[in-house]
């Protein structure tokens, strides 16, 4: 495996322009002992390799050219309501690309880390360990589970990392399901009541922390050819969207009294009510990092609040 063939391991990050891919690419680039390549699709930029991963026939030739030792596959359709409307398109990207990457990895002794989701569980019996029974409630969760099977059945060396709701630096406030709540507060008229879902318990997890976890897993694999399997990583602060909105209120200048807790399940694709992921396997390996939500959020919102004030 790459410990013997590549003195400088080549790490390929798919989806390097995404919410998770950006901090992951940045953190990997900070290491001077790895060669790092990121892929983009719509958000092309100098230094990134462009590929449409839903065109799965193109994947083997693309990987032949780059010859990575480790592929961290983050690219996906991750909006459950989009997946519900377009299950075939979602399967093509989330499962088809994963299968093609895993098959190439099996033939070339590369290691794959596939990013999966807490939505593989139905949310009725938290906390979930990696070996617990899966039961996705929507097309997105099913596609992520099918992607896991594609990786684990391809015969390549692989790890699956399941993560819950992610938040981090955003290009626009509506880029993530967390920061979009601040956007909703900002867009409301002064004194207007804003309903916020208070039904599902989430564990918002910082993308820079997940990047640190992925680096820890990659480094571990480069040292230990037996490392692999299914892992979980999650923040440990339980919150509903209503709880998050109440934390945002003073930061965006909203009167918390205007935020109304909505106890009904969200409309659209069905969601798990509490799919808390037990992260103890990675913790035992000494891999992991947790930034507190309240500490991280002000710096994430700040650039966008300044821009919004100018717009107003
Ligand atoms: N965000 C969450 O709350 C969350 C929660 C649990 C699990 N996850 C999982 O975490 C991973 C990363 O999610 P994310 O939030 O970073 O996603 P994201 O912000 O939506 O980014 C998606 C990435 O995939 C790329 N991509 C989309 N369609 C593509 C295509 N046809 N060909 C090639 N690349 C394509 C995008 O590239 P361009 O932008 O350049 O087009 C982008 O880099 C995903 O596997 C997701 O399922 C996310």
Notes on the protein architecture:
The chain contains eleven helices and eleven strands. The chain is an alpha/beta fold and 312 residues long. It has two domains: 2-168 and 204-236, Rossmann fold; 173-201 and 238-275 and 292-311, UDP-galactose 4-epimerase, domain 1. β1 (10-14), α2 and β2 (35-40) form a beta-alpha-beta unit. α9 crosses α11 (293-311). It is globular, with a radius of gyration of 20 Å. The protein starts with a helix and ends with a helix. NADP nicotinamide-adenine-dinucleotide phosphate binds next to β5.
What's a quick, concise take on this entry?
40% of the residues lie in helices and 15% in strands.
Topology:
Layout: H1 2-5, E1 10-14, H2 21-29, E2 35-40, E3 48-50, H3 59-66, E4 70-73, H4 80-85, H5 87-108, E5 111-117, H6 139-153, E6 157-163, E7 166-167, H7 179-187, E8 194-197, E9 205-206, H8 207-223, E10 229-232, H9 241-252, E11 259-262, H10 280-284, H11 293-311
Parallel strand pairs: 1-2, 1-4, 2-3, 4-5, 5-6, 6-10, 7-9, 8-11
Using brief descriptors, characterize the structure shown:
312 residues; alpha/beta; Rossmann fold; UDP-galactose 4-epimerase, domain 1; 2 domains; 11 strands; globular
Rg of Cα set:
20 Å
What is the averaged pLDDT score?
A: 95
The CATH architecture name of the largest domain reads 3-Layer(aba) Sandwich
Helix content: 40-55%
Low-confidence stretches: none
Give me the CATH superfamily of the largest domain. NAD(P)-binding Rossmann-like Domain
Give the count of structural domains. Answer: 2
Topology as a string of helices (H) and strands (E): HEHEEHEHHEHEEHEEHEHEHH
Q: In percent terms, what proportion of residues is strand? A: 15-25%
Query: What's the main sheet like?
Result: 7 strands, parallel
Number of strands: 11
Shape: globular
CATH topology heading of the largest domain: Rossmann fold
Number of helices: 11
């Amino acid at each position: 495996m790459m410990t013997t063939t590549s003195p400088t391991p080549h790490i390929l990050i798919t989806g390097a322009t995404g919410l998770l891919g950006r901090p992951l690419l940045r953190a990997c680039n900070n290491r001077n002992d790895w060669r790092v390549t990121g892929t983009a699709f719509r958000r092309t930029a100098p230094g990134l390799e462009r590929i449409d991963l839903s065109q799965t026939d193109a994947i083997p030739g693309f990987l032949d050219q780059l010859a990575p030792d480790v592929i961290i596959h983050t690219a996906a359709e991750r909006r459950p309501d989009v997946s519900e409307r377009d299950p075939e398109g979602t399967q093509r990207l989330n499962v088809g690309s994963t299968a093609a990457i895993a098959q190439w990895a099996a033939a070339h002794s590369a290691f794959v880390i596939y990013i999966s989701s807490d939505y593989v569980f139905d949310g009725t019996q938290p906390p979930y360990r990696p070996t617990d029974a899966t039961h996705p409630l929507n097309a997105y969760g099913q596609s992520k589970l099918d992607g896991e099977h594609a990786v684990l059945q391809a015969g390549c060396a692989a790890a699956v990392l399941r993560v819950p709701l992610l938040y981090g630096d955003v290009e626009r406030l509506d880029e993530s399901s967390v920061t979009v709540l601040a956007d909703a507060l900002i867009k409301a008229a002064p004194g207007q009541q804003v309903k916020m879902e208070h039904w599902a318990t989430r564990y918002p997890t910082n993308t820079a922390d997940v990047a640190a976890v992925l680096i820890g897993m990659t480094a571990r694999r480069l040292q230990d050819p037996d490392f692999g399997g299914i892992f979980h990583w999650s923040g440990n602060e339980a919150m509903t969207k209503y709880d998050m909105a109440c934390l945002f209120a003073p930061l965006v200048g909203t009167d918390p009294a205007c935020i109304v807790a909505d106890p009904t399940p969200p409309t659209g694709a069905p969601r798990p009510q509490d799919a808390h992921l037990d992260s103890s396997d990675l913790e035992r390996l000494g891999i992991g990092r947790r930034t507190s939500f309240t500490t991280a959020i002000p710096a994430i919102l700040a650039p966008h609040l300044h821009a919004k004030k100018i717009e107003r």
